[in-house]
Each structure stands twice: as structure tokens, then as C-alpha cells.
Amino acid sequence: VYFRAMDYLNLLNPQQRQAVTAAPGQTLVLAGPGSGKTRVLTQRIAYLIQSMGVRPYNILAVTFTNKAAREMGERLDQLLGGARARGLWLGTFHAMCARILRTEANNPGLLPFQSNFVIFDADDQQNLVKRALRENNIDDKINKPSAIHARISEAKNNLVSPDDLPVRSYRDEIVVKAFKRYNELLQQNNAVDFDDLLLWVVRLFEEHPEITEKYARRFEYVLVDEFQDTNMVQYSLLKLISSYHHNIFVVGDEDQSIYRWRGADYRNMLRFEQDNPGCEKILLEQNYRSTQTVLDAARSVIDQNANRTPKSLFSDRGRGEKISLHEAVDDHAEAAYVVDTIQGLLRKGALGGDFAVMYRTNAQSRLLEEAFLRAGLAYRLVGAQRFYGRREVKDMIAFLRLVHNPDDEISLQRIIAVPPRSIGEKTVNALQFAAQKAGHSMGAMLLELAEKADESPVWKELGRGAGPIFDFAVLFSGWLKAKGELDLPALFDRIVTETDYKPYIDDGTDEGKDRWDNVEELRRLAFEYQNKGLVDFLENLALVSDQDTLPEQVNSPTLLTLHAAKGLEFPQVFIVGLDDGILPHSRSRDDPEEMAEERRLFYVGITRAKDHLYLVRAGLRSTYGNPEYQVASQFLDDIPEDLLVRSGGEVVGGPARLKSWDDTGEDDYSYGRRSSSHYSNSRSNDVSRSNSSSNDVSRSSVSRSSGSRSSNGWGKTSYDWSQPRTVHAASGRSTPPPPAPEPEQKFHDGQRVRHPSWGEGLVLSSRILDGEETLDVAFESVGIKRLIASLAKLEAI
Ligand code: ATP
Ligand code: MG
């Protein structure tokens, strides 16, 4: 059953209707969040098909993400009945371009690749740049492949070819050389990168007017959502593809432009108007999403940005509830507040899917994920891999596991060539072979090699590969010795330094920094096990590292970055980490343009909320292993006090000044007490966490944790993270680590087992998940737990 066109037109306000039914030509819908831009765009497609008789085949709709495309497709199915939209092109810029290129590559000689070209992902691209550098005899330690790649990507996004790149320095020369070789290598591999997808289409169109015309004729109507986040190439592409019929309908909001770091330029909104003098401009002013309170807060924040057109937004949903501003004692209490609040509301009948928790950087999800796991509450993580599933986190855990258990071959295989150290698959196979012959594990072979190199059979077996293996063996044996002497964070640091891990993952790009943030997050966790040590640390990971301890349910709270939240809406939104240096991010401090972007990011977050917004911050945060006072985000100052209900304590400078948890005026359940007892069970030795209702306890916790800074913090570790020293400068060919062998299953369903703290239990299921034997065990004491067999101290009974 689907609506007829006239039915849904009646549900729109006059401006929306004007947009949906706008005459052919150029239309710009410029409107704030929640005003129905996406809805209008979707309904215009339905309107064109149903009321104007346009064939779906002649329509192109561009969305910002694949997810948005899927949702729009579903909505269209409802409006039209599935089959009726057949032939419609609906997808992202990249998807659209890949499609065009696959078609056109069938024409011989037109493009430098065949129709079955592969699309290289970020990792592949990086490896290719590295190769290009090496082939030009350029040192890839000094010239970081990722930094070079960023320059290449930027050039491609601005339609600049290697020959057109200005050469002003030696560095520029290197970029040009690498850029040229990189392109050749792509070609040799019959591959393109993400940027190429767009670039080649623009080139193709520019050089072959007949091809442009073919597509431009086909797409009578072009519609674009989130237009404010288009970059230069995308803008050119749209211009070309609409160059025959000139029917282009774009919707956007300058205030929600948050992808500057990927070359997006919100001034394209203005450019669109200038390039299309006859364009019809439509403003939507009614917000259907949020309460007036949420809108007022959003406006007070965005109004601080200069150079923007002020937009008025109103809602007839009424004032609604005030915004909750919660200042947690520390970051653990912050996560606990979120989870406790959600649990409280779930008990009152809210649905899991009503909630979203948003944060500035991916690394912030870890504490939240843990809090959800502890509470036994399902959650969804959007747009990023779960913390423990991320490559860099798994790498570091593998190093530690190997040091814990030198016979752990899975971990060894994972990291023996990470970062690349000239150990190839052949060498690893030879090592494995030598180990088998000697009846040892590979780890044991390495240790033997490190101890008495000349007697080890590995030398003979390995031939040329022996050098790098020996170097690694020496590192490895050093770590084993250090295990007894160093505490866990120091051991962690040593591994990171000696493997030169930081430059390997952090190339200076935003993604690189995010990856490094994740390593620091893990280090922070290691800090909490400073006293308990490696074994307990790994045991804890056995519990939380499983990716699906709880089934991914659609109807669960969503954890996502503010960037990933664009275009979405939720009844209840939490934005966490509203501290200076997090939001706005410390990277943006010195650049007004960046600050404006951070503000827009906050604005996007606020305006996702339909009914209730929670802003959360922490007085103390242990970003670098030891608690540090946080200053509240300056953005909070812009929200009028009468829109807020404050709760939690404040930590202002020196000694803590904490409001009582009890006078928050909150509901019948107390976050403080519950989370305090909740944590004291599982994390007994951390002092800064107790989230108590008493001033005394809080004060003492603060002074103790700040006192610990000098003894436990960076000062104690013996080197500087910002200057990793190169212990082993590997040169030569890099090779991906060989695939890890499938582990043996040690336990079987129905088996009885014993755990040191939980006692006896029954194995409900045992399976290999992500290369690990994963068990569901029902314990009499604690109920069902999911464990990783190789980490949990389980014994069969
Ligand atoms: P954003 O800028 O955040 O992407 P948007 O302008 O695209 O927002 P939509 O997502 O299209 O806004 O709409 C926001 C919400 O308001 C949706 O739930 C949508 O269904 C609803 N909505 C929009 N217009 C109307 C209307 N005329 N009547 C009822 N609900 C509406
Ligand atoms: Mg939208």
C-alpha cells in the first residue's frame, strides 16, 4: 500500500510543498536541521515519478553515505511501491562514479584500467605510496607515506595533476615524484583509489563531451542531499552531469558543514547560487524534529559563528524538557551516568533505539562500551569498528599476549611483521618449519635464537631472512626479561617504542591520530593494571574484547561520533566529552576556521535530539594514564542557563568543589550511588573513580589522584612519546603478515569447567570467532559469561 502523490503533499508545509513541486530548473533548498530537507528531497523523487511522469531511469539522487542512500531507498519503496523506482540511480558520489567508470572502461583506450578494476582502500593506498617512494630512492622514514598520500589526495580532490603541482621546495619535488609513480602503480595494478573514482569521471567528461552528453541527457533530474559537504571535484561533477537538462535540486545547510578535513567547502552553497542566477531558492523554517528548548540551545551555539546567514527555526512541538547538563566526577563516572540514565529510562518504558550517545573522537567509545558491557546492556556502534576490534588495539594486545605466553603463535603471527620489518611470508614459513622440526613453538625458537644465535638451527633454515628475524628475536627476548622488572604501562611503552609503532600508525592525518588515540586509550587501561599486572590485564580483556558479547540488536542505544550522526535523529541524545580539548578538539585551538567547524559539529550533535538532550562532561579525565583536571568546553557557556538543568559535581581548579549527588533533583534512582558500588566491585584500586554523594570522599579522591600524577604519570616512564627512537630501522621489502592459523578448540559444548574467580560452570557453546576460540559459559555464581579461551584461566574438570 503506498501513498498517492497528492496524499503526501498534503502533509507538507507550504515551503516544503513548493520545494517538492518546484518547476524544472535549479533549486536550492537552504534550511536548518530537522526542517525536512531530506524528506523533501525524497518526496520530490516520488513526485517526479508519480505526478510528473518522469522515468526513474532519468533520475540521479546523491546522498552523503551509503546508509543514507539505503534509508532513502526504503522510504521511496513505501511511497511508490518497490518496483516503481527501478532504474533510479541512488547512492553516494563514489558509488555513482564507480558505476560510470565500470561502464566506460569497456571502451578500449578510453581509460587506463579495465572494467574489472579494483578500488584500493586506505591501507592499500598507503602501501602503494611507500613503494613509489622506495622506487624513487626516497626515504620513507623522513617522508611519511601517509603524509605524502594526504598531499596526493588533496591534489586529486582539487583536480590538480602531478605536473600542475607547484614545486616550491625539495619536499614538493618528492611529492610530485611519488605522485607520478603512485599513479603508474595504480595503473599497473588495474586499480583506482577513492579520489580517482571522482577524478577519472571528471576527466572523462571533460575530455569526451560525447560521454558527458550521454549521462547528462540521461539524468534529466539530479538531486543532492547534504550539499554543504561537497568538495571541488564533486561540485564540478554535478555541474557536468546536469549540463544538458540543467535540472538540479540541492539541499543543504552551511551550518552543518563538518567535512572540511576532507576538502568539503560549504561555500559551494553560495557558488551554486552564483553559477545559477535563475535558481529558485527556498528556505524552510519549521523544524519538525526537536523541541523549542533544543532549538534554542542549538541556535545560541551556532550564533557565535561569524560569516553566516542567521536562520530562524521554530518548532510547534512546544518547549519540551530542559537540557540536562551533567558534570561527572571523572570519565568513568561520565560513562556510568550515561548508562545509568539510559537504564533508568528503559525501566520506565523507553526503547533502546531511542538513545544515541555521541562523541568527538572514536577513542572515546571505549569507556562507554565497557560501561554498557558491564551493565549487560546491548548497544550499537556506528561508523567505526568496536574499540577492541580495531587493528592497532589488536596489535598491541597481541604483543602483550605474546610476552605473556611466548608460545602463542596466533599473536606471534599477527605481529611478527608489524610494523613491517623485512620479515616476509617465506621467512615466517621457514621459521615455522624449523620450529616444527625442533619440536618447539616459534616463540621458543626465537628466544633460542636470541640467546645463542650461532647454535640455533634457524640460521641455516632461514638464509637471507635470518637477519631481521634475529633482530626481532632480540627485541622479543628483551621484553620477556623486562616483564619481571617493569610494571605494565612501562612494558607497554617499551614495546611501542622499540617497535617504532607510533609512526607506523600515526602519519599525521586525522585517521592516523585517531589510531594513535586508540593506542593511548589502551595504555590508559594498562595503567589501571599497574599493580595487578599483565595477567589480570589480559584476563580482563578476555571478557571485554569479544566483539559480540551482546547480540547487535537494532533496538539498542547507538554509540557514534558526531561526524557519523549527520542527518540522523533520535528521541534522546547524549553528547559526552564536553571538555576543552575534546570538543572543541585541541587540534583546532589555534585556527578560527577549525574552531568554527568544531562549533558546527557540536551544533550538528545538538540538533539530532528530538525530545531530550543530555550534555555530559567530566571533571577529571585520564587521557594520558593519570587523571587531569578538565576545563568545561567553552561551547557550554553559550547555552542560556534557563535552558539547562545541572547535575553532578563541579571540579574547579585545585581542590574539588563538588555538589552533592542528592541535590540534583533527578529521578528516583541515584547515578552516584549505583555507579559507585558498581565499579568498586570490578575496579577496586582506582581512587579517582568513586562517584560518591559525599563531599569528603570526592575531595579525597581528587587529591589522591592528582598526587599520583608525579609518581605514576609520564614522568616516571623513561622516554618521550613524542620522539620515538628507532631501534630497528628496517629497510627493504615490506610484507603483510601471513594469515593466522585457525586455533584448536580446547573446549566443547556441555563440558564442565572451572574459573579461578567464578568457580564451576558449564560450556554452553564453543566456536572460533575472529581467530579465537570463544566460549559461552554458564557459571553458577555469575550467570552466563562469554570468554576467550586462550585468555581466560579456565580448566576442564
Ligand atoms: P538535517 O539537516 O538534520 O539532515 P533535514 O532538514 O534533512 O535535517 P529531515 O530529516 O528531512 O530534516 O526531517 C526531520 C524530521 O521531521 C523527520 O522525522 C521528518 O520525517 C520530519 N518532518 C519533516 N517535515 C515534516 C512535515 N511536514 N510533517 C511532519 N513531519 C515532518
Ligand atoms: Mg537531512
Notes on the structure:
It is a single chain. The chain is α/β, with parallel strands linked by helices and 797 residues long. The protein contains 28 helices and 21 strands. The strands form 4 sheets. Strands 9, 10, 11, 12, 13, 14, 15 and 16 form an 8-stranded mixed β-sheet that branches. The longest helix is centred in the middle third of the chain and has 20 residues, at 466-485. The chain is globular. Residues 37-38, 567 line the site of magnesium ion. Magnesium ion (MG) is lined by residues 37-38, 567.
Tell me which ligands are bound: adenosine-5'-triphosphate, magnesium ion
Quick one: how many beta strands? Answer: 21
Task: Please give the radius of gyration in angstroms.
Answer: 29 Å
Structural class: alpha/beta
Domain UvrD-like helicase C-terminal: 292-567
Domain UvrD-like helicase ATP-binding: 10-291
Binding site for ATP: 31-38
Region (Disordered): 654-755
